């Protein structure tokens, strides 16, 4: 009891050393909670641009990978009325694929659908090199693509046998995926 009285006297004599603290700020108990204003970047409801829009933005001087409308809108004299005007397209833009190298090697029927042609090292691994480039890897990663295809065929043989019709054709495809055995690493011409 004496200690308690001594403690209370110390609190009165030295108030800065007390354990008492001012009451917390009064909280608003009515109404909906206030929202914190967000930055314009996080508040945006715009869509994420597609892969081709990103590519077009990085290469503004190249041809656009998607067709743009040739109809422009102009605002009329009255508010809220719009009219459409046809704009003429230059004749040089009718066939932009003609500017792609090696396009003459592709059949005419398929040319409008070609967006780009990649020229890779022609050593018999060119197909694997193209796949690795389009997967976002470099051309030297063609070994990873080859090994992934070998493992896919090996692990899912029962799924691919009906596709190739015979065991003999499956074996031809599977053996053709294995890397060449020449000293310089190039595939022999019969595997090209």
TrEMBL record:
Classification via InterPro entries: OTU_dom (IPR003323), Peptidase_C85-like (IPR050704)
Family: Belongs to the peptidase C85 family.
Domain OTU residue range list: 115-192
Top-level taxon in the UniProt lineage: Eukaryota
Region of interest called Disordered, as start-end residue ranges on this chain: 20-90
Biased composition (Basic residues): 23-40
Compositionally skewed regions (Polar residues) per UniProt: 56-74
Native organism: Medicago truncatula (Barrel medic)
Protein name in UniProt: Putative OTU domain, FHY3/FAR1 family protein
